[in-house]
Amino acid sequence: MRSTPPAETFPAHTPAASQIFTTVLSQGPLTRLEAARRAGLSAAAVTKAVRPLLAAGYLVETVDEEAPPALGRPANLVQVDGGRALFIGVKVTATELIGVLTDLRCRIRLARRTRLTDRQDAAVLASFTDLVHELRTGAEDFGAPVLGIGIAVSGDVDRAEGAVRYSPFLGWRDVSLAELAAKSTGLPVTVDNDVRALTVAEQWFGAGVGLSDFAVVTVGAGIGCGLVVHGRVVAGAHGVAGEIGHVTVDPAGPPCHCGNRGCVEAIAGDAAIVRRIRETTGAEVAGTAEAAALAHRGVAGAREAYARAGEAIGRGIATVANLFGPQRVIISGEGLAAYDLFAEQIRDSFAASAFGSAAHCDVQTRPLAFEEWARGAAATAIQSFITPDDPPPSR
Description:
Strand content: 15-25%
Mean pLDDT: 90
Number of strands: 16
Number of helices: 12
Strand order of the largest sheet: 6-5-4-7-11
Structural class: alpha/beta
Largest sheet: 5 strands, mixed
Order of helices and strands: HEHHEEEEEHEEEEHEHEEEHHHHEHEH
Distance between the termini: 16 Å
């Protein structure tokens, strides 16, 4: 819940105006006729919608120099002026804050990192406030206002309330993060689950542009999943839709921190892989880098741990494909650093577990740095600015 009014309100006072702006933002530049077609609106509705956006400088018109010669005046292209406004996105991990300053088109202009030595919410908030101040100082060179902040946190996050209900990696429960962050910065704040935030960025600016149904699956410390169904990011009635990390794929498998056994995350999460290698090899593996190095050297127990992880991930992705029938599944996350160790098992397990035509789902890998996750947080801030009264995650 944003507790301070925005410094500037977006001049789109109808759903059609927001829809047209979002279409041009993610797919532009476009002619007005093409924007109308893609948004499913009439040409008259588009003309009415773009007028205040052009007047306020959020949209600009340019001549389409690449259009083939034709009688009469060449068609104008409508595009978003990315320099019109700036936004800040912050990804919170257990060990650091990753912050970015983006323009209105979510292009990263500045990036900063801050180490966390204390995970208590008050200490993290103090570090966050300092990071935001640093980014706002840097924003002065770009000559545009910072109009919002997005924060991405792993775990159970209630975006509508701006609250972190539970984040296992931070040890937080019921932290009203949006309210606290808005008070400390004086800017409107949007808080969302980190995977959903990344999904918003992929929907508007990445591999999901133009798709009505797709999923983002992240592998690493946790196993997450963001879902877009009929063009909307799905949060579910309780904000935890897409938690394939806690789908049971082996009832006799290892215990998971959620209380169940054999969850995808309990087999394929970074900590689970390291633990399995320690158990099977007796080696004192310090972390994922050592685990991957052992596997690359051909140590049987290490290779087996990654193969087992790949099988679990493939089954989890097949579950998503079977239930929702997405056009595409995008695999990302820091765990892709070792993707070559379990890629084959993911593909084979997915093919074996996907039902019928679900097996034809386009499965892609997309390695993304943590700055891209912070960019996802900025995308949620942009989204909230454009559609403040219509929270995108469906309930």
